[in-house]
Amino acid sequence: MNTLKASRISTAAGRFAKLIWRPSHLVRVHASAPPLTRQISMDAQSVASRLSNSGLLRSQGLIGGKWVDAYDRKTLKVYNPATGEVVADVSCMGGRETNDAISSAYDAFHSWSKLTAAERSRFLRRWYDLLIAHREELGQLITLEQGKPLKEALGEVSYGAGFIEFYAEEAKRVYGDIIPSPLADRRLFVLKQPVGVVGSITPWNFPLAMITRKVGPALACGCTVVIKPSELTPLTALAAAELSLQAGIPPGVVNVVMGNAPEIGDSLLASTQVRKITFTGSTAVGKKLMTGAGGTVKRVSLELGGNAPCIVFDDADLDVAVKGTLAAKFRNSGQTCVCANRVLVQEGIYEKFANALSKAVQNLQVGDGFTEGVVQGPLINEAAVRKVESFIEDAISKGAKILHGGKRHSLGMTFYEPTVISDVKSEMLLSREEVFGPVAPLLRFKTEDEAIHLANDTNAGLAAYIFTNNMQRSWRVSEALEYGLVGVNEGIISTEVAPFGGIKQSGLGREGSKYGMDEYLEVKYVCLGNMNSN
Ligand code: ADP
């Protein structure tokens, strides 16, 4: 921290306010796209003004408890995906700043890890209280930089804060063991101790919750963290970090750097002071990090891509299946790694289900996440829309049929119509890869065995859903699915009290629940010898 130049340090969030209020900065990303209505733009602006008054808007990185610029003062722009407007210009950091952050996390580790569990618990509880007290502003910030409808964003704040509350409690339950000794003069103990400094790399689809479910257990165990949020959504991370300071969490325990992702990643990987990398994001980047962690033999937790099957059996309750599929597929406009990616429907219920789902999808209101009644926001950027378009083109060229949607929304830019597409086959891109958009591809199957085979025929293994009223089948199929989480007659199953994580190439480790603590603890065996001598 002593390497930080005073001139880089500031407590003002000025850059944000300036950008929001100077019309010349309101640039559109896609000049050729149809203009959005004025209504949308004004909503976002009034939200931004409220946010900049709240003090939670930060544009600099957080290192050792100080808000700092990048050494070269480079910045990067954060866009509102619904309008293409620039909402902020934040510090664009790299290796040097990351090394500073690692040093301060390392320094802070010595004292943070020595606090009692009860003391750490109280800090976390205060942080949770502040996150909830600022739920409205944080929700607005999420909608502003990520695009999801405000109601969903508020739900994310409650969900995300829930990890801090849960781990505030769990901090007090890090039990060790006493092992019956095979030798009379020895006593054998197992201690659980914090791993050390943790590098936490997170994506844009849950700008708050993906951070809290890593940082909550890390801090509870006594670790300190360097957070690298997505460059697309750093503002929520910075606001949450500001609240951690307000909660009294000591300087250096929580650090945030953002900017050049490969450079930041490489610095975290190269450092011998960083003992663990926890990552949520693409499988490709996860594999790179896992390989890179080998250089210093770091521990890794990875939450990577999924290819979730949603299996609807003939004996399912149609309404429950439609409602559940809608939730599993269209939440966050299809941009979650647990979103249903393939909807496998048994032939006896196929037509009825396809009609009912298409009808339900017609009612999903698309628009700016700040507009009342909107349940489908924009995709994160135009590249995401192009990816969806290319998957749809591929499917149609191979014989699939659009039942609803199937093209960009009339709002243009990043908006895509919620889509149902039938006659999808295993060889199509829609079945092979994550579409990460509002598209429900329907595949037909005949038997339970065929459904299980289709469902497991992928390298991914994160979430799966089944809809059936047959209890034996619900157990049988849940056990046969090669997935880390299974929803039976439910489309949204994530909660801080249950373990979340994948098998196969969907990742390593679990987040949430008591199991989430294990990721940040080392197991130490202590042997007391010569215990019978006086
Ligand atoms: P997504 O497609 O969801 O954006 P990514 O895996 O590209 O998934 O991004 C997830 C997170 O990983 C983001 O914070 C991103 O900046 C970061 N990231 C991307 N490339 C690297 C890298 N080479 N090293 C470290 N982090 C990276």
Automatic annotation (TrEMBL):
It comes from Morella rubra (Chinese bayberry). This is Succinate-semialdehyde dehydrogenase. The keyword Oxidoreductase applies. Pathway: Amino-acid degradation; 4-aminobutanoate degradation. Gene3D superfamilies: Aldehyde Dehydrogenase, Chain A, domain 1 (3.40.605.10), Aldehyde Dehydrogenase, Chain A, domain 2 (3.40.309.10). It holds the Pfam family Aldedh. GO terms for biological process: gamma-aminobutyric acid catabolic process. Its EC number is 1.2.1.24. One of its GO terms (cellular component) is mitochondrial matrix. The active site is at E303. Residues 67-526 form the Aldehyde dehydrogenase domain. Homotetramer. It is found in: Mitochondrion matrix. InterPro entries: Ald_DH/histidinol_DH, Ald_DH_C, Ald_DH_CS_CYS, Ald_DH_CS_GLU, Ald_DH_N, Aldehyde_DH_dom, Aldehyde_DH_Superfamily, Succ_semiAld_DH.
